[in-house]
Amino acid sequence: MLGSSFFGMFFGAIFLSRIADKYGRKKAFIINLTIYSIFTFLIALSPNVTFIIIFRFLAGLGLGAQPPLCATYLSEILPASKRGKFIAWAYTIAFLAIPIEGFLALVLVPLAPLGIEGWRWMFLIGSIGAVIVFLRIYKLPESPRWLALVGRKDEAEEIMKQFEGNVTQGNKTAFKSTDRMTNAKISQPVPFSAIFQKQYIRRTLMMYIFQIFQTVGYYGFGTLAPIILNSKGYTITSSLEYTALSFLGYPLGSLLAVPLVERIDRKWLIILSAFGMGVFGMTFGMADSPYLIVLAGFLFTVVSNIFTSTFNVFQAEIFPTSIRATAAGSAYSLSRLTSGLLPFILLPILNQYGATTVFAIIAAAMLLLILDIGILAPRTTGISLDTVEENSHNLKL
After folding, report:
1. Nearest residue to 102 via CA among 244, 221, 222
2. Is the pTM of this model over 0.85?
3. Is domain 4-393 given the CATH code 3.20.20.80 in the classification?
């Protein structure tokens, strides 16, 4: 049951991300949220475990393409000098949901308000939240970069004027450079295979390797922390309390990423935060006292969300507009597949060798990730998307 949602997200991230590049970012948002909201509501009504597994898989289809799509959309409407900062703010607000969800589960799961089991309320609240977001999506403008790409330049320019309030000569120049960049690509759709073309394959493979290993660290902790605490002899209630306290670090980490993401190059900020995840993860795995467990878990979630806020900005910056959502979505799909497989890999190791070994594996994954980013990743901080795209065309393998 734990893996069904991740497998759904795997397929959703691959196939629904294509919609964003072919039919627009806004349409993709609407489709994703519709799928997620309907099937999350149906999870709450499920009569048995079989239906829960099926509906979690289907809800995962809508959820899977959403994170890379959000980063893609925001990177295309924000100026280079503030792109990282504003996206980090967006993730900070989003990650407030994680500790709220943790404490809400702590309160609701043991209860049955109005005769409805607490876990069902959790899914009902999630589906209602998606509906609220869905209603706001209609007010979002389409990405002007995507509109320019498909030849709808009048609409793109009108949206640019709305963003800017007034059009200065510098802004006109910036828009025209984007316009020139996309002119050659208007006549034909770009196939999925484009992400493996010579000028992009280095970045594609770098992100594929990255997404597999980052999942071992980030989701290995988030998914298995309560199980690991239970294996150390703590009760389910105590495990949920310690996990909820540790998860307070998620929004704090995203908040700390706001000033850091524009001051430290994204590449090096990813490396530093990945190193911190390895250190604090090992500490969490070896800790015996409740205070050290909560402290190590809290510090892990802090650095892990500096990490995730930074890489979500980064992955949307390194590909051209025509394949940005497809490339980010296909890479992200591997993280969902890894997340689905992770419990089947790490739980037997936890049962046989203990928590320290599990977090040693997580630390090793972070080391391989550091080497991947250190060797293959380009610089993107403060650089316009036009320049990043031009640099990708000039890559030599």
Report:
1. 244
2. no
3. no
